[in-house]
Amino acid sequence: MGGCLSGDLKGGKQAIGGGVHGRSTMNNDTGHNEAIHHFYTVRGHSPLFTLIEALNLNEQDFLGETTCVLSEIVTKSNRTLTLNLRGKNGPGGSRNFGALTVHAGETFLSRMTVEMKLCCSRLYNVDMFSKSDPFLRISRQTEDGNHVPICKTEVINNNLNPVWRPLYLSMQQFGSKDDPLLIECFDFNSNGNHVLIGQLHKSVSELEKLHKDRSGANLIFPSHRGQEKVLKGQLFVDQFIEKEHFSFLDYISSGFELNFMVAIDFTASNGTPRNQDSLHYIDPSGRLNSYQQAIMEVGEVIQFYDSDRRFPAWGFGGRTYDGTLSHCFNLNGTNAYEVEGVQGIMSAYASALHNVTLAGPTLFSHVISMAAQMASQANSNCITKYFVLLIMTDGVLTDIQETMDALVRASDLPLSILIVGVGNADFKQMEVLDADDGRRLESSTGRVATRDIVQFVPVQEVHSGQVSVVQALLEELPSQFLTYMRSRNIKPLHV
């Protein structure tokens, strides 16, 4: 965990967890520490610790145990929470097991960040009919000699002398300033088969020296025979700033909130809800369908970072109570779009299945524009609110360009969009919206998104892997939040 946890027990401080554990990330703006990973990927209703056992460290005697949700700690201004201890079989009746005070902190390493602005000149052109579309990928070398990608720039089209936006590397990502990094320059291809233009090995210290000396480093093209060809193309470091950044925890503990919103697909391709093979089938046994699972898993994490826990909930692609086809209707069937808590979303969803006729087509632009409107209105009055829209769908978009236009407009707002794909449809369009390949979304007018605000996860693929839907969905949210705040120089409260 990128921080430490300590507890005060019967007048003396006892260690209950801590240490630094680095993890890699492919985010191109900033890394997030392991503490953030934990409080997003551990389900909100689960305890932070499966068990906190208070022990006499000298004799290892059991003194009591307790559980808590990490959000209960990090949302406190002093990140401190006092919990009553209990026995292994629950409360001990008249027996007093005492109390445990838990404090969450961050190590200096989790906050130290290097901001660099990289550029290249005279790159070799690997395209036949136009100039290359270059982007950089930076990887850290592991102990076994392999390389793990930790960062990448955006793609710059048709340019052999690219200047990329500033990128951020945390010390958790690159380790020591003297550890070698592999910097690769690729020509982007939409099919994913990117072509290597050149590469070089440099540590953060060496990159800092390039900046100070105002000199460049030649790219090298590796050979299968072990020989290297030195290229004319060079890498330059136009900007190098080493500083301590505010972390996600700094914002959350100072009063910033995540406001949760939900939009559910009511198109006919989901299947008639009363049929057992329908994606909307409500199982009498209580087994959740994919829509319900996504609502519960994501909602139960984010709800802890929303003070009033009133969530806008919409449906799209269905005929509402009066027979009107709507691509953004209130899920609860009233004039009020908000519901109370995650259970309110679940109840409104179940009710809507009885009152809304599945129709189509599948359009995202309406619900994205509605969420963007709310984020814009809130942003003009309050800078401490950041919005998270969860869209769940089973189908192929029919308004892909309108959706891209809406996303580009929304990229300037305090908003992130999580998309869950349920069923077995072809979700290649969603991968384009996700923009994880480094190419920023572009609107029909040629405007480019200022940042990536979308994370897409297909349920079928996630269930076959090692991570949960909520882990995959929320992986990029802290960095998207921080990118927005830093780009507008918004600082935590009381700083």
UniProtKB/TrEMBL annotation:
<dbReference type="InterPro" id="IPR045052">
    <property type="entry name" value="Copine"/>
</dbReference>
<dbReference type="InterPro" id="IPR010734">
    <property type="entry name" value="Copine_C"/>
</dbReference>
<dbReference type="GO" id="GO:0005886">
    <property type="term" value="C:plasma membrane"/>
</dbReference>
<dbReference type="GO" id="GO:0005544">
    <property type="term" value="F:calcium-dependent phospholipid binding"/>
</dbReference>
<keyword id="KW-0677">Repeat</keyword>
<dbReference type="GO" id="GO:0071277">
    <property type="term" value="P:cellular response to calcium ion"/>
</dbReference>
<dbReference type="InterPro" id="IPR000008">
    <property type="entry name" value="C2_dom"/>
</dbReference>
<dbReference type="InterPro" id="IPR037768">
    <property type="entry name" value="C2B_Copine"/>
</dbReference>
<dbReference type="Pfam" id="PF00168">
    <property type="entry name" value="C2"/>
</dbReference>
<comment type="similarity">
    <text>Belongs to the copine family.</text>
</comment>
<dbReference type="InterPro" id="IPR035892">
    <property type="entry name" value="C2_domain_sf"/>
</dbReference>
<dbReference type="InterPro" id="IPR036465">
    <property type="entry name" value="vWFA_dom_sf"/>
</dbReference>
<dbReference type="Pfam" id="PF07002">
    <property type="entry name" value="Copine"/>
</dbReference>
<protein>
    <recommendedName>
        <fullName>C2 domain-containing protein</fullName>
    </recommendedName>
</protein>
<dbReference type="InterPro" id="IPR002035">
    <property type="entry name" value="VWF_A"/>
</dbReference>
<feature type="domain" description="C2">
    <location>
        <begin position="91"/>
        <end position="221"/>
    </location>
</feature>
